[in-house]
Design goal:
The complex is a heterodimer of chains A (434) and B (307). Chain A is of the alpha/beta class. Chain A has helices at residues 14-40, 61-80, 100-114, 125-137, 168-183, 195-210, 251-262, 308-317, 335-355, 363-371, and strands at 48-54, 89-95, 118-120, 142-143, 160-161, 186-192, 214-221, 241-244, 268-272, 293-296, 324-325, 328-332, 375-376, 387-390, 395-398, 400-406, 409-416. With 307 residues, chain B is mainly alpha-helical. The chains are: A alpha/beta (434), B mainly alpha (307).
Chain lengths: 434, 307
């Protein structure tokens, strides 16, 4: 605590005045920096700015960390290969706190303050749903990497696209036959109680009914919940299969408590790897999951038939053969999802190349160029596999995997080709005005 | 699940919640009782306990020995931090009720954001020193008289039992400290009348620092105990703070026995209501209880009316 009566600290102290003056001068120079910096570059060499809406804090932080690493790696690789239209790619990161309201503010900040060309990178569906309307109003192309069905359902707008990751509806269509044939027909679902979980609830119920199965109980759990045992008694005794998908910081607790609840006499279990993304499968308390099955968007553990593209992707992002950080084997990635950032950045690049994108005035051309895309071959740009983009619904389709947990690692037992993940269009965004 | 085993599971889950809640609320209640300070940062001391448990467990190595080190060291570290906060912040604002609320809100954000910067936004687990699943039997009245069977899901883990036991022991020790020791006498004297206590030579400021540290230490201990069940996360203090306030308001601010009763009431009702109905209803009922207490018995169940 400074004492204002002491001579050294008085406001009139000359040394302090001088310091203030210097600071003020430096501050003015710093504030003016963008003005003169702008003219040192030719217009064409200015970077393409991509606003990255990152779940740096809040319940999506583990995904945010890996979405960031993947995004930075992809940007580095794109820039090393000459950037977009000869211009470097610059990632402008803003934390959205995994919060819908903050998400909309971040979109606004991107458009009005950072002056980005496009925004991208959001995972949690409530944040996407909170942010997309603002992006639409600001006419800012908004590329979600979210899995939610909200894009293809027609709920959002022409400026919002999801070209880098498949949605829940096609994922559950891919896995429902496996669940019904191999595991059982009486299913109890456990899912987070918000848009993403509701997508699972609605579409899996439909998909399993089409396979002659039935969802006999639905347990919705708030995504911020930290204690789960109290939900489990609602699992009916006749349950043959538990279908679980959980998100948030407490996923490990969720799975552990499920194991403690069932003890030695568990039903068959099918989970979405979301329940254990960024979690080491050898963590104590997870032994009971041996022999259970998981959906994976992209296999976390290197498979015998690993493609050169997967090898390239792992090497560039810094991922080892177990899906953990190459520098810290305890830092497990969100491997089944984060490829979406990589692939989306390449779509943005391809779209901008095709549209001859020169600046924000070409944003509409960019959206139209992406809408015109269809096939995406398996390549370094699309390491997860070949994809088909539907320009009318703004949603991409791709292959899905079912993996079995054995000896603490996941091995793919079935790969569902993308043709089996189609469903009829629910919207035609191309008919909507910009 | 049948009604009987279902109820028993709900009660067991509720007992674990009640145990942790009682520890935390006892700290909050103590600080308010003696110092008349509404400590809004109390939930962050709980979070700090959990987070430091992760850090210290990492340094001490796993196993039972490491966990004992955590149990001893972490509450002491957090208590020391709280004493420092008391001396540097609360003492400076003269323990003025309004200003301490604002000051502790500031401490809340500082602790939370420093944790976010240092520890990161991830939830991290600490392995329990022991964690056997104990399946519990249930009596069934069949044709041949009563017989035992093991229903699906009716179980508890040895660690959860330990949490309940540990909370009971710590609360008993706290009660002994407050009623049977000289230091407890000094605290109660300060609580009763600060100025008279000072006139009798009690170093009130040191008592305040001690009490603030003790309250934070109790919250940290609750955090340490819960972290093998849940995980350490920088936002975990919010809900815990809310529930402790509910408990303390229902029990009566400053009353240890009231806090204990209210913790049991809220813990069990939370366990049972959320198992049978929904966790949201449990929160609604808890909040309703607070409203009823505030209307009909503002001093709380065991609190004494203002003189």
């Amino acid at each position: 605590m400074s004492d204002p009566t002491k001579p050294g600290a008085t406001p009139a102290d000359p040394a302090r005045r001088a310091a203030l003056k210097t600071l003020a001068g430096a501050g003015t120079a710093a504030a003016a920096l963008p003005l003169w910096a702008r003219y040192t570059h030719a217009q064409s060499a200015a970077p393409i700015r991509v606003g990255f809406q990152m779940h740096a804090t809040g319940i999506g932080a583990a995904y945010g960390r890996w979405y960031d690493r993947t995004t930075q790696a992809a940007a580095r690789v794109i820039n090393a290969a000459g950037g977009i239209n000869g211009r470097p790619l610059e990632i402008v990161t803003e934390d959205d706190g995994t919060d819908p309201r903050r998400g909309a503010e971040v979109v606004e900040k991107f458009a009005n303050q950072h002056r980005v060309d496009v925004a991208f990178g959001t995972l949690f569906s409530h944040v996407v749903i909170g942010s997309a309307p603002r992006a639409g109003e600001l006419k800012l192309p908004y590329f979600a990497v979210s899995e939610g069905h909200h894009v293809a359902s027609g709920m959002l707008n022409r400026w919002t696209l999801q070209p880098g990751i498949t949605d829940v509806k096609s994922q559950v269509l891919a896995v429902a036959p496996f669940v019904a044939e191999t595991l059982g027909r009486k299913v109890t679902m456990i899912f987070p109680d918000y848009a993403f979980g509701h997508d699972h609830r609605d579409f899996f119920s439909e998909a399993i009914a089409a396979q002659g199965g039935e969802v006999i109980a639905k347990l919705a759990i708030p995504p911020t919940e930290t204690s789960f045992t109290r939900y489990f008694p609602r699992i009916p005794r006749e349950t043959e299969v538990i279908y679980h998908v959980m998100v948030g910081p407490a996923v490990l607790t969720f799975v552990k408590e499920m194991g403690e609840f069932f003890g030695p006499s568990r039903p068959a279990i099918f989970g979405f790897i979301d329940s254990l993304e960024a979690v080491d499968l050898r963590s104590p308390g997870l032994d009971f999951l041996e022999g259970t099955y998981f959906w994976e968007g992209m296999p976390r553990y290197v498979q015998p038939d690993q493609t050169e593209f997967d090898r390239h992707f792992r090497a560039e992002v810094g991922i080892d053969e177990n899906g953990a950080s190459a520098s810290d084997p305890r830092d497990v990635s969100t491997y089944a999802h984060m490829f979406g950032c990589w692939e989306t950045l390449y779509i943005i690049k391809r779209g901008m190349d095709a549209a001859g994108y020169a600046g924000p005035q070409d944003r509409q051309k960019l959206v139209e160029a992406v809408e015109a895309m269809t096939d995406m071959a398996e390549s370094n740009e699309h390491p997860q596999g070949a994809k088909l983009f539907n320009g009318r619904t703004h949603q991409v389709f791709g292959q899905q995997h079912v993996s079995r947990l054995e000896n603490g690692r996941l091995d793919v037992v079935r790969t569902v080709p993308l043709e089996e993940t189609f469903y009829p269009d629910e919207v035609d965004y191309t008919a909507r005005p910009f | 699940m049948e009604f009987g085993p279902y109820l028993m599971l709900a009660a067991l889950e509720g007992a674990v919640t009640a145990a942790v809640l009682a520890l935390m609320a006892a700290g909050l209640s103590l600080v308010f009782g003696v110092m008349r300070v509404v400590n809004v940062a109390h939930g962050e001391f709980y979070m700090l306990g959990a987070v430091l448990a992760f850090v210290v467990a990492g340094m001490a190595g796993g196993g039972a020995l490491g966990f004992v080190a955590v149990l001893v060291a972490v509450p002491l570290i957090v208590a020391a931090l709280a004493v420092a906060a008391d001396v540097t912040v609360l003492k400076r604002v003269g323990y003025d009720p309004e200003r301490t609320i604002v000051a502790t809100i500031g401490i809340l954000y500082i602790v939370q954001q420093v944790t976010l910067m240092g520890y990161g936004p991830d939830a991290r687990p600490v392995a329990a020193p022991f964690n056997q699943r104990i399946a519990l039997p249930w009596v069934e009245w069949g044709a041949g008289g009563p017989s035992l069977y093991w229903p699906w899901g009716l179980s508890i883990t040895s660690y959860k039992l330990f949490v309940i036991g540990a909370a009971v022991v710590v609360l008993a020790l706290l009660w002994v400290l407050m009623t049977r020791t000289r230091i407890g006498l000094v605290m109660r004297a300060t609580q009763l009348d600060r100025e008279t206590a000072q006139a009798f030579g009690i170093p009130v400021e040191r008592v305040y620092a001690l009490v603030f540290g003790l309250g934070a230490g109790l919250a940290a201990l609750a955090g340490v105990l819960i972290v093998p069940i849940q995980q350490a996360h920088y936002l975990m203090g919010g809900d815990a703070l809310l529930l402790s306030f509910i408990v303390v308001i229902i029990g009566g601010l400053g009353s240890l026995s009231g806090t204990l009763i209210a913790a049991l009431l809220i813990g069990l009702s939370d366990g049972i209501l959320s198992v049978f109905f929904s966790p949201t209803l449990a929160k609604i009922v808890a909040t309703l209880l607070v409203a009823l207490v505030l209307v009909f018995r503002p001093q709380g169940l065991m609190g004494k009316p203002e003189r």
